[in-house]
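ok so I'm stuck.
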Amino acid sequence: MTHNDLATIETSNGSRSLHLEWDDPAMAVLGLLQLSREELLDSMRSGDLPQPPLAKLLNISVVDAEPGRMVLSLGPDERHVNFLGVVGGGVLGAVLDVAMWGAVHLSMADKSVVTTTSMNTNFLRRVSHDQGPLHAIAQTVHVGRTTATAEARLVDAADKIYATATATFLRLGG
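replied:
not stuck anymore, here's the structure
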């Protein structure tokens, strides 16, 4: 049996199962909308803000967050493997997208909400399910009145790059 803060993977007779538990996703949304930027940052850093189910499903956690920058950790494991036996590009793209979204959201002083409108991802190396944690390091490039852009890279502990991404976000109001 493998345990981490986000999920439990159980192995029995060659079969595997994944057990997830999460808080009401509305709690994370309320935190996002009701807390000031500084309170949100403190809550994310301390782990007090409930993680959305997607973060638990993909084994993503916040490493660091500040206005215009977010670092997430992805712990690749068997749940992420595709038909070729490597971590799927959709998983890697998702963690990069979430990191860029967070960097953009945290850069805005008002209560605006942003959504991804386009994203370009480049996969540079294969990711194995047992190679250890990767970090998605994202930063804003531009935050305007209606749109924002960000860039990110996915790296291992030795700072070897596995993927890069850029994205554009639409500001939905505040």
